[in-house]
């Protein structure tokens, strides 16, 4: 039942996306973002010249995705430092903007720590601010390198798990490409590497209700890269497994607890159950900055609850997010209540392997995670 309309896999090299950059304009420093709420219809930039505007961009998912949130958190603290503002307060505001992705707090706290160390060592404000900015850039570059290493580890694991020829049929959920990363992404980067190496037969893209990161963003990235993809409603995934059309599931993560529990976009847990039932590998791809060894298990992970209007409305046009500041188009009766967790938790026993930039662990055990993180060059922040 492979998609009859599957695009012929043609490897292209699209222009790199400028997802997030530091900008020093005559008007002053700013974090400049590709506004993801307007994709795929419009590629527009959002200039965040202060921390409150960056916090709003994070809350509205103009910038999103765990690794990129970490990078944004780091640059946000550097922005406060360069503006001579309270760096500790900026780190706290940024970390609290979205609670589940551990990377956001990690990036903010890491840059704040370097700034504080510089001040405590006697550096003046300007030098300390430069140190903060340098640390934010280092975090950005480390994430780009991590993305490339995860892609290769993932490609090698797919070859091991799926030895037959003919290419892999991979299912992804949400968006885990360049739009969440300093590089090509996490789970999507594995699928993209497979495509470039000629081993991607089909990419199944879950639309990912309610904010449609799959339909709007992953389809956009897959199309840009000439990948053979088909979009599906989240509800259709089960029938794909039943038809034997899925060789492996590739997802990202927002927080991985010490026991290997994985917080990821809502809808990940049902895919893990389907994968288990149909004996399909369920692979999590995430940098070690997403592993939180201080959170013991999935029950301790805070799952972000978002507004009901994201479920009861749909966005009528780019830039008017469903559930945003009004303007969405109602699909439910006025006043309808809605359950809208942004993430769910997959227990370790449903995870085939976790692929990080430091290697792969399977079966997923706390010891394996701690060992991987010990190898990581990522500094740990208490
Ligand atoms: C690999 S990080 C991408 C991760 O972030 C997404 O969440 P959101 O779009 O709400 O930031 C989703 O959980 C993805 O797996």
TrEMBL record:
<dbReference type="InterPro" id="IPR037171">
    <property type="entry name" value="NagB/RpiA_transferase-like"/>
</dbReference>
<dbReference type="InterPro" id="IPR042529">
    <property type="entry name" value="IF_2B-like_C"/>
</dbReference>
<dbReference type="GO" id="GO:0046523">
    <property type="term" value="F:S-methyl-5-thioribose-1-phosphate isomerase activity"/>
</dbReference>
<keyword id="KW-0486">Methionine biosynthesis</keyword>
<feature type="site" description="Transition state stabilizer">
    <location>
        <position position="174"/>
    </location>
</feature>
<dbReference type="InterPro" id="IPR027363">
    <property type="entry name" value="M1Pi_N"/>
</dbReference>
<protein>
    <recommendedName>
        <fullName>Methylthioribose-1-phosphate isomerase</fullName>
        <ecNumber>5.3.1.23</ecNumber>
    </recommendedName>
</protein>
<dbReference type="Pfam" id="PF01008">
    <property type="entry name" value="IF-2B"/>
</dbReference>
<feature type="binding site">
    <location>
        <begin position="64"/>
        <end position="66"/>
    </location>
    <ligand>
        <name>substrate</name>
    </ligand>
</feature>
<dbReference type="InterPro" id="IPR005251">
    <property type="entry name" value="IF-M1Pi"/>
</dbReference>
<comment type="similarity">
    <text>Belongs to the EIF-2B alpha/beta/delta subunits family. MtnA subfamily.</text>
</comment>
<dbReference type="InterPro" id="IPR000649">
    <property type="entry name" value="IF-2B-related"/>
</dbReference>
<feature type="binding site">
    <location>
        <begin position="264"/>
        <end position="265"/>
    </location>
    <ligand>
        <name>substrate</name>
    </ligand>
</feature>
<comment type="function">
    <text>Catalyzes the interconversion of methylthioribose-1-phosphate (MTR-1-P) into methylthioribulose-1-phosphate (MTRu-1-P).</text>
</comment>
<keyword id="KW-0028">Amino-acid biosynthesis</keyword>
<keyword id="KW-0413">Isomerase</keyword>
<feature type="binding site">
    <location>
        <position position="213"/>
    </location>
    <ligand>
        <name>substrate</name>
    </ligand>
</feature>
<feature type="binding site">
    <location>
        <position position="98"/>
    </location>
    <ligand>
        <name>substrate</name>
    </ligand>
</feature>
<dbReference type="InterPro" id="IPR011559">
    <property type="entry name" value="Initiation_fac_2B_a/b/d"/>
</dbReference>
<feature type="active site" description="Proton donor">
    <location>
        <position position="254"/>
    </location>
</feature>
<comment type="pathway">
    <text>Amino-acid biosynthesis; L-methionine biosynthesis via salvage pathway; L-methionine from S-methyl-5-thio-alpha-D-ribose 1-phosphate: step 1/6.</text>
</comment>
């Amino acid at each position: 039942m492979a998609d009859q309309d599957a695009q012929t896999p043609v490897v292209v090299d699209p222009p790199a996306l400028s997802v997030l950059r530091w900008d020093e304009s005559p008007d002053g420093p700013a974090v400049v973002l590709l506004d993801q709420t307007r994709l795929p219809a419009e590629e527009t930039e959002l200039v965040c010249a202060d921390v409150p505007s960056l916090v709003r961009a994070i809350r509205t998912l103009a910038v999103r995705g765990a690794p990129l949130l970490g990078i944004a958190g780091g640059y946000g603290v550097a922005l406060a430092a360069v503006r001579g503002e309270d760096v500790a307060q900026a780190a706290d505001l940024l970390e609290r903007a979205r609670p589940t992705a551990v990377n956001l707090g990690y990036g903010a706290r890491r840059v704040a720590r370097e700034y504080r160390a510089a001040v405590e060592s006697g550096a003046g404000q300007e030098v300390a601010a430069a140190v903060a900015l340098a640390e934010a850039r280092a975090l950005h570059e480390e994430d780009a390198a991590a993305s490339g290493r995860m892609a290769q580890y993932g490609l090698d694991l797919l070859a091991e798990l799926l030895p037959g020829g003919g290419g892999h049929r991979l299912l992804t959920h949400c968006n885990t490409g360049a739009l969440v990363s300093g590089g090509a992404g996490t789970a999507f980067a594995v699928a993209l590497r497979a495509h470039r190496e000629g081993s991607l037969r089909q990419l199944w893209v879950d639309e990912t209700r309610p904010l449609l990161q799959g339909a709007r963003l992953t389809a956009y990235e897959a199309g840009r890269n000439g990948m053979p993809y088909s979009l599906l409603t989240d509800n259709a995934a089960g029938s794909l497994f039943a038809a034997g059309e899925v060789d492996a599931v590739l997802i990202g993560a927002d927080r991985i607890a010490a026991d290997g529990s994985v917080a990821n976009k809502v809808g990940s847990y049902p895919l893990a159950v389907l994968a288990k039932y149909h004996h399909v590998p369920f692979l999590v791809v995430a940098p070690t900055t997403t592993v939180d060894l201080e959170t013991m298990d999935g029950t301790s992970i805070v799952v972000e609850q978002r507004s009901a209007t994201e479920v009861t409305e749909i966005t009528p046009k780019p830039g008017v997010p469903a559930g945003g500041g009004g303007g969405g188009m109602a699909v439910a009766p006025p006043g309808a209540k809605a359950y809208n967790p942004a993430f769910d938790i997959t227990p370790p026993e449903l995870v085939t392997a976790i692929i990080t930039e430091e290697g792969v662990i399977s079966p997923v055990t706390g010891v394996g995670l701690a060992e991987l993180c010990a190898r990581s060059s990522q500094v740990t922040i208490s």
